[in-house]
Design goal:
There is one protein chain. By secondary structure, the chain is of the alpha+beta class. The chain is elongated, with a radius of gyration of 26 Å. Bound molecules: iron/sulfur cluster (2 copies). One iron/sulfur cluster binds next to α3.
Length: 177
């Protein structure tokens, strides 16, 4: 291609794009519309955590720090044995190391970790990117609700087990007309 022809082609591309509407989002004045399941930040539901350590062991970046102690609870019934349970003291995630792979959320057997689409937690000090358990718990408010169950599906076995333990019968699922 000759120099003159190449110049004309370049000018044509420039002029064509000059008349087009910009697709650039003017963040932070215009917030992006993200899918609800975006991987923004990890939220912790502390009540669900049994300190099983699976998430910390499987994290490929070693950026989950957990500490706990054992407490003894009185027996559930008179004459029973005392129960020992783990109490969570520390649960930190260092988001300066996190790869957002989601492994910790997938391996947690007790649904204690969830994705939140919130992403605005940049810091000027890298140490502030380590979120402690109270900050991770606060993110729970931003976790979208799970998708609705299929109306024709059998009730989840967890609900059936809970109903059985409470001595109630689970009503059959309502079918769509
Ligand atoms: S998302 Fe991946 S890298 Fe980040 S804390 Fe979880 S397991 Fe670790
Ligand atoms: S895998 Fe879940 S229950 Fe186990 S320590 Fe991690 S958050 Fe807690």
């Amino acid at each position: 291609m000759s120099f003159g022809r190449g110049l004309l082609t370049g000018l044509k591309v420039t002029l064509t794009n000059l008349t087009r509407r910009s697709v650039t989002a003017h963040y932070p004045d215009a917030l992006p519309e993200l899918p609800p399941r975006s991987r923004g930040v990890i939220a912790l539901m502390e009540e669900n955590c049994t300190v099983c350590m699976l998430c910390a062991r499987e994290c490929p970046a070693w950026c989950i720090y957990i500490d706990s102690h054992k407490e003894t609870a009185p027996p559930a019934a008179p004459g029973g044995r005392e129960r020992s349970r783990n109490m969570l003291d520390q649960f930190d995630i260092d988001f300066s190391l996190c790869m957002y792979c989601g492994i910790c959320i997938e391996v947690c057997p007790f649904d204690a970790l969830h994705w939140s689409p919130e992403f605005e937690y940049a810091e000027t000090d890298i140490h502030d990117l380590t979120h402690d358990k109270s900050r991770l718990q606060e993110w729970m408010w931003t976790v979208p609700p799970p998708p609705a169950l299929d109306a024709s599906a059998p009730p989840p076995k967890e609900i059936a087990n809970a109903e059985k333990a409470a001595g109630r019968q689970t009503p059959p699922p309502e079918r769509e007309q």
